[in-house]
């Protein structure tokens, strides 16, 4: 476990260009690394965990469960070829909006938070679903992808638990600003 934790920062600094592989996907490892190697996905997945932790129980667990479940629906739409306009913009906006919700300490009702997270999950899922049919082993890819996504949600939750102190709340809100800025960079083609 300690080796994994030491390697995690190096995995996290990988280029966003690796996030969308244009069909060159494989099995479990490709699925696992896909959300971890793309900053556009990293910020959204971490933000879901952060916002859930900020909102507290039951959102701390519901939002990170809603995201992959609804993402599977988006993935299925991508697999069967249902078009979805502005997928990349939707993915970038997920970072902007979720980051701003965290930065401004927005305490949305659980159902509103679930809808927001679910809408963005459709875009993330669709992007991955369009790549999935090319995978050598789509089942292994999907399992790896869910585990990678879950890990990023857990990282967000862990940072979100800092909200218990005034300094921690400032750190979490600051992370929201960074997430929104990175999402904006993707949205405007800067990143």
Features of the shown structure:
signal, single chain, 191 residues, 8 helices, mainly alpha, transmembrane, 0% strand, globular, HupE/UreJ family protein
The helix/strand class is: mainly alpha
Low-confidence stretches: 4-24
Beta strand count: 0
Binned strand content: under 5%
**Main sheet makeup:** none
Number of structurally distinct domains? 1
**Contiguous helical run count:** 8
Rg measurement, Å: 16 Å
- Mean of residue pLDDT? 84
What portion of residues is helical? Answer: over 70%
SSE series: HHHHHHHH
**Cα separation of the termini:** 31 Å
Shape: globular
List the helices and strands and how they pair.
Elements: H1 2-12, H2 28-37, H3 39-55, H4 59-79, H5 87-103, H6 110-131, H7 138-160, H8 166-187
Helix pairs in contact: 2-3, 2-7, 3-4, 3-5, 3-7, 3-8, 4-6, 5-6, 5-8
Protein name: HupE/UreJ family protein
Keywords: Membrane, Signal, Transmembrane, Transmembrane helix
Pfam family, one: HupE_UreJ
Structure description:
- Keywords: Membrane, Signal, Transmembrane, Transmembrane helix.
- Pfam families: HupE_UreJ.
- This is HupE/UreJ family protein.
- InterPro entries: HupE_UreJ (IPR007038).
- This protein has helices spanning about 1-10, 30-35, 40-55, 60-80, 85-105, 110-130, 140-160, 165-185.
- The protein is globular, with a radius of gyration of 16 Å.
- It has about 190 residues and is mainly alpha-helical.
- α2 packs parallel to α7 and α4 (about 60-80) packs parallel to α6.
- It contains eight helices and no strands.
- The model is unreliable at about 5-25 (pLDDT under 50).
- The chain has one domain (about 25-185).
């Amino acid at each position: 476990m300690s080796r994994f934790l030491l390697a995690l920062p190096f995995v996290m600094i990988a280029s966003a260009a690796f996030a969308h592989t244009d069909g060159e996907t494989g099995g479990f490892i490709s699925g696992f690394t896909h959300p971890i190697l793309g900053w556009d996905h990293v910020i959204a997945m971490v933000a879901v965990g952060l916002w859930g932790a900020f909102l507290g129980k039951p959102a701390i667990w519901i939002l990170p469960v809603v995201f992959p479940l609804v993402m599977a629906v988006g993935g299925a739409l991508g697999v069967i070829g249902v078009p979805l306009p502005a997928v990349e913009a939707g993915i970038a906006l997920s970072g902007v909006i979720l980051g701003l919700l965290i930065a401004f300490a927005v305490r949305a009702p659980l159902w509103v938070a679930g809808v927001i997270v679910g809408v963005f999950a459709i875009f993330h899922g669709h992007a991955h679903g369009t790549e999935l049919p090319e995978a050598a082993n789509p089942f292994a890819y999907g399992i790896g992808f869910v585990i990678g996504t879950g890990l990023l949600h857990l990282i967000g939750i862990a940072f979100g638990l800092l909200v218990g102190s005034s300094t921690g709340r400032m750190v979490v809100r600051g992370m929201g600003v960074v997430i929104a800025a990175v999402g904006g960079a993707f949205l405007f083609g800067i990143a």
